[in-house]
Specification:
The chain has 331 residues and is an alpha/beta fold. The chain folds into 2 domains: 169 residues, 3-Layer(aba) Sandwich (D-Maltodextrin-Binding Protein, domain 2), CATH 3.40.190.10; 131 residues, Periplasmic binding protein-like II (D-Maltodextrin-Binding Protein, domain 2, 3-Layer(aba) Sandwich), CATH 3.40.190. The strands form 2 sheets. Strands 8-7-6-9-5-10 form a 6-stranded mixed sheet. A 5-stranded mixed sheet has the order 2-1-3-11-4, with helices on both faces. β1, α1 and β2 form a beta-alpha-beta unit. α4 crosses α11. The protein is globular. It starts with 5 loop residues before the first strand and ends in a 24-residue tail after the last helix.
Amino acid sequence: MSAGKIKLTIATTDYDHFRDFRMGLVNAEGIDHTWLTLGHHEVFARFTFNREWDVSELSFAKFCAQVTRPDSDIIGLPVICSRLFRFSSFYVNKNAKIKTITDLKGKRVGSPEWAHSAAVVMRGWMHNEAGVKLTDVHWYQAGANAPGRIEKVELSLPEGLKLTRVSDKSLSEMLASGEIDCAIIARPPTCFLDEHPDVERLFPNYLEMEEEYFARTKVWPIMHLIAIQKHVLEAHPWVARNLLNAFNESKRRSLERLLDPAVSRYPLAWLPTYARRMREMFGGDPFPYGIEENRATLEQMLLYAHQQGIAHKLVKAEDIFPKGVMTNVVV
């Protein structure tokens, strides 16, 4: 450990926008880190159940449950690990005759967990914008492609909501067999990837839908963000901003590589051209951190999590991050 520096453990998936920080090419002033690179389900479970590291990637939905507890022991950083639009995440069995979102009324719809960020966002859209209320659907919870996945946070489900948990089958199996009519899953289920003849996307034009949705709402859904144990900031309040500075610099370098065809590490044609288009679409920063830069997105998720019985209370964006973390520094 370097003299005068505090030691922090950090756990995330291997994101390119974190890589320079993780590898020590970018440093957080005053901090030595031990960085564990693990699958995100393992990171979420071990941090949620055991608080095994100081700083952690966390599902936004699971974060909402934990940060709104009375006397919560964690707080967030406005650093986004993963964000994705999710109209591509609806998979339906053709025999259910589902052609529009309103056809889901009275149907059986599954997701891997109730506090599953992709499903929370899309259930919230259904409930608040698309005319399909939470209680209009019979919900199912099971592992995406293998049975046995469990809920990791406590829930207080809305009155009248019907949720059935299945421990011995996967959503992919049930969707293919017609035991459920639709699944909302972050990644394509095995039955879809295997081109099962009865399984298709509800919204094959999801890209156009997502572009229109962002243009209208300015919401760019957050799936995972960074959480910190509060005791770290109680002992060292400066840690939050120093970590944020390092995460920002690491992201800046990642985007610089992505936008420059001469140094891009990704072996795909026209990726820098597409990245420049995204930079223009998102107002200069295609992957913004910060509170104001993400206010519409943050407060939408906080509302949806509360409506769905995941968050213990409805809070504002400022309530889930350290006070003053976004203070501007004039040089």
